[in-house]
Each structure stands twice: as C-alpha cells, then as structure tokens.
Amino acid sequence: MDAAFSLLAVNFVIAQIFVLVFGVVAFKGPSRGSGLGFAAAFAVASLSAVCEALIPLTGHVRFFAIGAFVTMFGGFCLLARSITRHYGLRVPNSVFWLLFVSGVFTDFLIYDLPRGTVVHSVAYQTPFFLTMALSAVAVYRSGRRSGADMVLFSMLALSAAFFPLKAYVAVAVGAGGTAGGYLFSKFALVSQGLGAVLIVATGLAMVGVFVKEAIEDAVAKSDIDPLSGIFNRRGFARRVAPRLERANETAAGALILADIDHFKRINDSFGHHVGDIVIQTFARVLREAAPTDAEVARIGGEEFAIYIPAINSELARECAYNIRGAMSAVGFGQLCDNERITASFGVASIFGGDTLERAMQRADTALYAAKAAGRDQVQLAGPQALAS
User: Whole-prediction pTM value?
Assistant: First the structure.
C-alpha cells in the first residue's frame, strides 16, 4: 500500500513539474496555444492520483474511482487535442467530446464488473489507447521528421501500446478485483511505475519539440530585417547559397541588386522617419513584383537583393524594369510634390557551380555602372551590359 501511495505521489509531482514547464513554454515560447493545452492536460490528469489516493481513505469508493478515470482520461483527451492541433491534423472538437463522453459512460457501465476480467480490462484501457494512437498518427502524418518529432512519435506509439499491454497483464495477473483492492495489487505497482516512466519520457519529448521550435523561431527572427520585414544579408545567404549548390548546371538563375537613389539626401532633407518609410515601401514593392519563388532581402542600408531561380538575365532585367517603374510611381505624402523616389539596378546571371559571393560581385559591378550612368537605370553584368 505504501509503495502504491508513493508512486501516486511521484506521478502527481511529475505532472505538476510539467504543468509548470509547459506554462513557461506558453508564455515565453512561440507556441502559446499548444503550451497552454499541454499544461492543462497534465494538470487535469494529475488529479487522478489524488482521487486514487483518497479511495481507501474515504467511504466514497465509487465516487473517487470514477473521478480517477474521468480526470485521467480528460487529461488524455486534452493532450490528444493539443498534439493534433500542434501538428496540423484538424480533428473537430466534437470528436474529442465524443471520445470523452463515451469513455466516461463506458466506465460507469463496467464499474461493477470484477477488475481483471477481459471485458473490464479491455473496455477500461481502450479509450486511453485511442487518444494516444490518434496523437501518434497526428505526429506521423505531419511529415515532420526531426529528431525531436520522431522521439515524440516513438513515445506516443509506446504509450498507445502500453494500454493493450495493461489490459493483458490485468487479466493475466489480476488487478485487485475491486477499485479499493486495486491499490493493494501488484498490478497497481507495475501500472503506476511504468506509467511514471512513460509520463516523464513523453513529457520530455514534448519539451524537446518546443525547444527545437523555439530555436528555429529565434534563428528565423535573426534572419529577418526588422525595418523592412524581409531577409537580411545573413538570412539571404542562408537560403540562396544552398539553392545554388542544388541548381542546374546551366540555369541557376539570376541576381538583382538594387540601390535607392540619393537616399542620404532623403534622410538629410526629410528626416530618418521618412527614410524608414521609403525603405519599407521599397521592400513591399520588391515582394509584390518579384516571382513567388524568389528570395528578397535588404542587404545594407538602402541596398536590396533578389535571387530568382531558373531565369535568364533578360527576364531578370525585365523584372528589374518592372520594379523600377512600380517604385517611381509610388507617391510619398511626406515629400515635396515633385519629389520622386528612384532606384538603380544591377543584374547578373548565375550558372551551375557559381557561388553567391561571385554573383553578388558581378551584380554589384553592374549596379555601380548604373549609378555612374546617371542612376534610375538597369544594367546587366558582363559584356551584354545595357543602359536603360
């Protein structure tokens, strides 16, 4: 009996630790909704240990025995709902309500059956198996195959398999006969002990997923220029360099460098606030004019870059012309009526085996030529260089 109470206490404390951990994740990490869902699931499930501990201490055996099932299974349903949503498997809330209500109803129906019989054991464990199996399916179907995701999938799959195993063991060795006798049985020790191990393993796997996602979110944010909302130089290089390595030998694409003309004069004449608006507007024009598969970045103060895959220099030059025209047509109420914002462009082809650094050098040379020719120009790198 003391051993059973000790395991119940251990399981309760473990659950509270995970409530705290996932609560912190919810308020500090990028996945607030999922973190709150996991915290609520462990909080509700932990009440099962309290109910089971009160069974031999009160005269309300039926009430606390059914309460133990309701709280534990309610926590499992909340957990499954959180996992399926986190991994993008859209399961209607009505499905989880149906699982919960049918599971609780089944527990009422089988309560007076002797524990350890096939009917009681299978009926009692099946609802838990279904929620864990659904959670494992959600992780697998998401297509996410990182180490953390696969560890979580493995723990969920093991947890799902644990419940049919519990049903078999309950029938094979007995489960105490009644709800009160359960706590004195060897089955209770095995069930609570293995349950604690799986709780810790699954909880840690979930924490691992959140840590991985938090790191990815931090890296993604570090790749974004906060003013323009597009990639910075680092983010641009991180995305374009691998694409060049995988590119076709003859058609890796093209690189466009763009520089806003007389930007220092804009800042000096109208203030840095207006300069920021010009930067943000130019970034928006680039995003709207660039092809959907292009990478767009602000790589310097007023300098921008666009990588367009599988395109030749002539088409890239046409894209630069479109951007040039779109930007010159934008009106800025903060400027004088006759003030027009223009930009200069350098275009360079990229071929298989080329590096981003070499392509940027060629495009930068073309950009310098466009500025030297009077600005508001598009120039091609290499011998085909043409002025607009």
Answer: 0.71
Q: What order of strands is seen across the sheet that includes strand 295-298?
A: 295-298, 303-308, 253-260, 343-350, 378-380
SS3 248: coil
pLDDT digits (tens, 9 = 90+) for 200-239: 899 999 999 998 888 888 888 889 999 999 999 999 999 8
Q: Which helix (H) or strand (E) holds 336?
A: none
Q: Look up tokens 């191990």; give the residue.
A: 197
Query: 388: exposed, middle or buried (C-beta count within 10 Å: 0-12, 13-18, 19+)?
Result: middle
Residue type, 287: R
| Residue 263 to residue 332: CA distance in whole angstroms | 14
Q: What distance in Å separates the CA atoms of residue 167 and residue 190, rounded to the nearest whole number?
A: 12
Catalytic annotation, pick one of 302, 314, 318, 339: 302
Is the pLDDT confidence value at 287 over 70? yes
Compute the chain's Rg from CA coordinates.
31
302 assigned to active site: yes
Interior angle at CA 74, CA 68 and CA 77, nearest 5: 140
| DSSP calls for 162-193 | HHHHHHHHHHHH---SSHHHHTTSHHHHHHHH
pLDDT of residue 249: 57
Alpha helices in 223-355 (DSSP H): 233-245, 263-270, 272-289, 313-328
pLDDT per residue as tens digits for the range 38-65: 999 999 999 988 888 887 777 788 898 8
Q: Please report the domains of the chain, with CATH numbers, ordered by start residue.
A: 2-222 (1.20.1070), 233-380 (3.30.70.270)
Element (H, E) at 388: none
